[in-house]
Amino acid sequence: MKIAVLTGAGISAESGIKTFRDSDGLWEGHDVMEVASPQGWKADPANVLHFYNLRRRQLLEVEPNPAHFALTELQEHFDVQIVTQNVDNLHEKAGNKNVLHLHGELLKVRSEFDENMVYTWEKDVKIGDKAEDGHQLRPDIVWFGEAVPKIEEAAQIFNECDVAIIIGTSLQVYPAAGLIDFAPNHAQVYLIDPKPNVEPNRNLHVYAENAVVATQKVVQKIISNHA
């Protein structure tokens, strides 16, 4: 059985990673367009690097939570493919094997000129740190206004699934929010969101709880149903 999982900020928030979509659109006092857009990078690259340096340092101090580990357990029983909007590595740290990062990865950087020139990177990035092509290194993050290069691969994962699980995402950020539309009609869909904006039906099971509590419930239900 093939299971497609889409995760968003809600699953990482319970490990202590700050999110910016909660209320005012500010990310720890920053306008997101100043630190997460090509325009912001062009205007003040040092500010953008500083912002992501802080995010990277924070990431190295946090650990996966029981929701991440529940998905690890699920992959021991089924073919599980995780598509995440998150840029952290908590899925990988929990042992999740098949993880597709739609919006890039915080522990990677790339040439500002060549998006395919990517490096693993855990320390701070400074102005003057350059890729092999001589261009400044920037976060390997898909910023607002940039194309999402892996969206077609993600859509294919959902198109082939028997079960879809949506965790910790409001389904407001496109194109990721449209992935659920690719799930086949027969697929059972589990939506985990403390404040869901959809009504359950025969194929849609809604859990209005946080990621840690509900993910463990859903995983155990799926395992028991298909044991």
Major sheet: arrangement of strands: 5-4-1-9-10-11
Helix content: 25-40%
Overall mean pLDDT: 92
CATH superfamily of the largest domain: TPP-binding domain
Query: What's the CATH architecture of the largest domain?
Result: 3-Layer(aba) Sandwich
Total number of beta strands: 11
Main sheet, how many strands, which sense, barrel? 6 strands, parallel
Order of helices and strands: EHEEHHHHEHEEEEHEEEH
Comma- or semicolon-separated keywords:
8 helices, alpha/beta, single chain, six-stranded parallel sheet, Rossmann fold, 11 strands, 22% strand, SIR2/SIRT2 'Small Domain', 2 domains
What does this 3D model show about the protein?
The protein has 227 residues and is an alpha/beta fold. It has two domains: 1-17 and 64-103 and 147-227, Rossmann fold (3-Layer(aba) Sandwich); 20-61 and 108-141, SIR2/SIRT2 'Small Domain'. 30% of the residues lie in helices and 22% in strands. It is built from eight helices and eleven strands. It has helices at 9-13, 32-35, 38-43, 45-59, 66-75, 90-93, 151-159, 211-225; strands at residues 2-7, 26-27, 30-31, 79-84, 99-101, 104-111, 118-120, 137-141, 163-167, 188-192, 204-207. The strands form three sheets. A six-stranded parallel β-sheet has the order 5-4-1-9-10-11, sandwiched between helices. It has a three-stranded antiparallel β-sheet with strand order 7-6-8. Strand 4, helix 6 (90-93) and strand 5 (99-101) form a beta-alpha-beta unit. Helix 5 packs parallel to helix 8 (211-225). It starts with a strand and ends with a helix. The model has no long low-confidence stretch (mean pLDDT 92).
